[in-house]
Structure formats: structure tokens, C-alpha cells
Amino acid sequence: MSGVQDQLEIKFRLTDGTDIGPKSFSAATSVATLKENILAQWPKEKENGPKTVKDVKLISAGRILENNRTIGECRSPLCDIPGGVTTMHVVVQPPSLDKGKKKW
After folding, report:
1. H or E stretch covering 28
2. Burial letters for 65-97: b for 16+ Cβ neighbours within 10 Å, e otherwise?
3. How far is the CA of 15 from the CAs of 2, 19, 28, 68, 87, in angstroms?
4. Rg for the chain (alpha carbons), in Å?
5. Pairing mode, if any, of strands 85-92 and 7-13?
6. How far apart are CA 74 and CA 69, in angstroms?
7. Is the CA virtual torsion 31, 33, 36, 38 positive or negative?
8. What is the pLDDT of residue 98?
9. Residue 103, strand partner residues
10. Measured between alpha carbons, how far is residue 39 from residues 61, 78, 88 in Å?
């Protein structure tokens, strides 16, 4: 892989069906960096947005992506379609309650 093939067009689909992106990223970009990008571009008008990278889960091709992996390591063969845009789903974890307390 070289040149343009090392760049991936990615858009991030939020739970309400809206998107952030698409934007071009290097295959060497870490998943944690993608999450930081999502935090920076999160629509201000949306409620319950993520506060930290740990609040965000990225899902691609049915797999939850780990922060320490690169997108090149995580991509599926479907991402290799020339000129294609990869859609990654964004899930925001709700704030956790005190672990010792029950919800009800």
C-alpha cells in the first residue's frame, strides 16, 4: 500500500443517524485519535455527548475497535473499495452510576 491507498475516508454515524465527516485519515492513525477527533467535532446541540475518549465506542464491520490499534490494523476488506467511504458507528456510553448502588 502506498500513497492514496494509505488514506481512508471515514464518516462517523451517530446513534440518531446523523454523521460526522467524511474525513480522510492515514491508515497509521490510532483508534484513540479517531475518538479524539469525534470529541472535537461532536455537535454542540446534541445532548448526552461524550466527555472523554473512554465514553466513546467505535464499531466497524461489527467489531468494537480498541484504542491502541491503528485503523489500518482494524479495517476490513470492504474498506479497500477504491474511492469508498467507510462508515464507523459511534456509541456513547452513559455515565456510570456508583458501582455499589443498584439502579432501582
Report:
1. none
2. beeeebbeebbeeebeeeeeebbbebebeeeee
3. 34, 9, 26, 24, 13
4. 15
5. parallel
6. 7
7. negative
8. 53
9. none
10. 22, 26, 14
> In terms of C-beta density within 10 A (0-12 exposed, 13-18 middle, 19 or more buried), how is residue 40 classed?
exposed
- Per residue in 7-37, pLDDT tens? 888 999 999 999 999 999 998 999 999 999 9
| CA-CA-CA-CA torsion sign (30, 86, 12, 96) | negative
For residue 101, pLDDT beyond 70: no
77 vs 60: CA distance, rounded Å = 12
The whole-angstrom separation of Cα 16 and Cα 57 is: 15
Whole-angstrom distance, CA of residue 90 vs CA of residue 88: 7
Predicted TM-score (pTM) of the model is 0.80
For the sheet with 63-64, list strands across it: 19-26, 7-13, 85-92, 56-60, 63-64
